[in-house]
From TrEMBL:
Protein name: Methyltransferase
Keywords: Glycoprotein, Membrane, Methyltransferase, Signal-anchor, Transferase, Transmembrane, Transmembrane helix
GO cellular component: endosome; membrane; trans-Golgi network
Origin superkingdom: Eukaryota
Class of enzymatic activity (EC top level): transferase
Membrane topology: Single-pass type II membrane protein
Primary residence: membrane
Length: 598
């Protein structure tokens, strides 16, 4: 090759070029090695003491139990004896009056949460035991005179000495709840043979209807809002009858679709035909296909009753016609009617819904919202149609009670990895586990324990294993977890969605036993343990029990907090002596406020 001047290009000798490069490379490597040695020795001198503990602490965190400092919680003042954090009347004025939405759940922010122990009323006594409690309770445990004064002429209850007595009266059953339900059974034969097992009573009063149905094999959720005077839900739970605070207002009730076999309203004062029937649409959503809605009170039997309702016969007839038309548009049919009771039945299949057109009112809901979504979920003015994926959701297709308790429901397939085999295994597991519980807590299965809550169930196995005991169980499924509550209802059990980062919808001192299985393992990343345990203390009766099945990692920390709440706890092995899990069985102490006259 030549350059532009046509002079030859001189190439340097290869050997002479490689030698300096090699020498330079060697020098650089040596210098780097020298600097590296200095850095490593300095790093060991400067960081060695700090690094080692960090590595060890991480290792220890993975295996060592969680430890916290001991603490003692103060007593709340006496005006908190009936404190319901998320339905607190003291906070009502902060919220709007539209459709009574101020009575819905409105939980306080974290900065306003109470870190104190809710005291019992002055003169509180251990509740009367079931079944005697259905007919009487201690006045001092539920010291409300207003409801006694206002409803004594309707025989809801009466006060005699130190007790309230419940004669079984009601606004629409002056001859007693027994005669009222007898008539209802004649109108709905399925109430007699195990076809109907689960029911909801909206506006339940003191839950006499639900209490009577217990003897007839029907398990009822009695529902009423928190109020300043009546304390309907508190009376129900004090009697040993399932109940929960709630109101149909702007949000769905905390139950999955197609849950209840029957719904009931006895002059519950819910304006069913107003707001385009949105309250009836929610009843439609939670009723099982082929399920029944029972209404007594205005406008039923208006021909004979209108004079006592401060209205006219024409107005009541118009209201009844409007109600019938609205129910027909939702695919309800008038099933039976006699005297003060009318019964409608929800369509048992999709034939009626398939006839609805886009112009129909109310329209069918689209698929944009889950049928079972029911935790702070707004009500919608549309018909929630049953899923066509399931063929045995209907009341007539569901096995009768008690057979349905142990038959695998179709909705198991909605649970990730859910199967018939897994359901059967869960059922068997809880039979063994409850037998072990009874050896550690002999009161379980006796009349010492009536109201039970399973705080984080999967299929309701704990409740199923206790069906032959004189108890009822409120099964809680996490609103953030696996949606298995439909399976619980398919088995003929009852329950609710809930988020344990918040307070539950009940009064203080309403449960005899709280049970949890791995709740803190599942929720500790969201919910602070201290607040969950304080909420457990609020809703647990004095002398009540707690069974905690939990990872060994959390047990000691739970026991420390429990001691600060005046619980007495003992640690036990599980039924299989597993090292990774332990049992903590605690009992809440009965104590009185310092300023109490007790």
């Amino acid at each position: 090759m030549k350059n532009k001047d046509s002079k030859p290009v001189a190439y340097p000798d290869k050997v002479s070029r490689i030698v300096p490069v090699t020498l330079m490379f060697t020098v650089l490597c040596g210098f780097s090695f020298y600097l590296g040695g200095i850095f490593c020795s300095e790093k060991d001198r400067i960081f060695k003491k700090d690094v080692t503990p960090v590595i060890q602490s991480r290792k220890e965190t993975a295996v060592a139990p969680l430890q916290i400092k001991s603490l003692a919680f103060p007593e709340c003042s006496s005006d908190y004896q009936d404190y319901t954090p998320c339905t607190d009347p003291k906070r009502w004025r902060k919220y709007g009056n539209y459709r009574l939405s101020f009575m819905e759940r409105h939980c306080p922010p974290l900065t306003e949460r109470k870190q104190c122990l809710v005291p019992p009323p002055d003169g509180y006594k251990p509740p009367i035991r079931w079944p005697k409690s259905r007919d009487e309770c201690w006045y001092r445990n539920v010291p409300y005179d207003w409801i006694n004064n206002q409803k004594s002429n309707q025989h809801w209850l009466r006060k005699e000495g130190e007790k309230f007595f419940f004669p079984g009266g009601g606004t629409m059953f002056p001859n007693g709840v027994g005669a009222y339900v007898d008539l209802m059974q004649k109108l709905i034969p399925g109430m007699n043979d195990g076809t109907i097992r689960t029911a909801i009573d909206t506006g339940c009063g003191v839950a006499s209807w639900g209490g009577d149905l217990l003897d007839r094999g029907i398990l009822t959720v009695s529902l009423a809002p928190r109020d300043n005077h009546e304390a309907q839900v508190q009376f129900a739970l004090e009697r040993g009858i399932p109940a929960i605070l709630g109101i149909i207002s702007t949000q769905r009730l905390p139950f999955p679709s197609n849950s209840f076999d029957m719904a009931h309203c006895s002059r519950c004062l819910i304006p069913w035909a107003e707001f385009d029937g949105i309250y009836l649409l929610e009843i439609h959503r939670i009723l099982r296909p082929g399920g029944f809605w029972v209404l007594s009170g205005p406008p039923i039997n208006y021909e004979n009753r209108w004079r006592g309702w401060n209205t006219t016969v024409q107005e009541q007839k118009a209201d009844f016609d409007k109600l019938k038309k609205l129910l027909a548009s939702m695919c309800f049919k008038l099933y039976n009617k006699k005297d003060d009771i009318a019964v409608w039945q929800k369509s048992s299949d999709n034939s009626c819904y398939n006839q609805l057109t886009p112009a129909s009112f109310p329209p069918k809901c689209d698929d944009s919202m889950d049928r079972d979504s029911a935790w702070y979920t707004p009500l919608r003015s549309c018909i929630t149609t049953p899923s066509q994926s399931f063929k045995r959701l209907g009341l007539q297709s569901t096995p009768k009670w008690p057979k349905r308790l142990h038959i695998t429901p179709e909705r198991v397939s909605m649970v990730p990895s859910g199967s018939s085999g897994g359901f059967k295994h869960d059922d068997s597991k809880w039979k063994v586990r409850v037998k072990h519980y009874k050896t550690l807590l002999p009161a379980l299965g006796t009349d010492k324990i009536r109201n039970i809550m399973d705080m984080n169930t999967l299929y309701g196995g704990f409740a199923a294993a206790l069906t032959n005991s004189p108890v009822w169980v409120m099964n809680i499924v996490s609103s953030y977890g696996v949606n298995s509550l439909g399976v619980v209802y398919d088995r003929g059990l009852i329950g609710s969605y809930h988020d344990w980062c918040e307070a539950f919808s009940t009064y203080p001192r309403t449960y005899d036993l709280l049970h949890l299985d791995g709740l803190f393992t599942a929720e500790s990343h969201r919910c602070e343990m201290k607040y969950v345990l304080l909420e457990m203390d609020r809703i647990l009766r004095p002398n009540g029990y707690v069974i905690i099945l939990e990872s060994s990692y959390f047990i000691d920390a739970i026991a420390t907090i429990a001691k600060g709440m005046r619980w007495n706890c003992q640690k036990h092995d599980t039924e299989y002596n597993a090292d990774k899990e332990k049992l903590l069985i605690c009992q809440k102490k009965l104590w009185y406020a310092k300023n109490s006259q007790q």
